[in-house]
Amino acid sequence: MINLDKDFYNIVEFALKLGLHPNTIRQYIRSGLISALKLGTEKRTVYRIPHSEFERLARCNMRDVLKKMVKEGVKDV
Question: Tens digit of pLDDT for each residue in 3-56?
């Protein structure tokens, strides 16, 4: 069982919380729509997403806002 009430999430955990695919979360991180800590080296990069980022997205209808941001190319909510 995954504990989803913590300070940082990996990509899979964050995707589960948002109901999105992990590859979508990776794309949003690369484009700057979701802030994440990048750990590791070029060959083995691991991302950790702070809980505050989930709270930021939860203040609005996150799925709709993220899709709109992708279409418009906006990088800040």
Answer: 556 799 999 999 998 888 999 999 989 988 899 999 998 788 899 999 998 888
What mean pLDDT do residues 65-70 have?
69
- Which residue bears the tokens 């913590």? 6
50 phi/psi in degrees, rounded to 5: -70, 150
Please name the residue that has the structure tokens 């709109």: 68
Domain boundaries in the chain?
8-72
Q: How far apart are CA 44 and CA 58, in angstroms?
A: 30
Which two structure tokens, joined as six digits, stand for 2? 């995954």
> DSSP assignment of 7-67, as one string?
SEE-HHHHHHHHT--HHHHHHHHHHTSS--EEEE-SSSEEEEEEHHHHHHHHTS-HHHHHH
* pTM of the complete model: 0.71
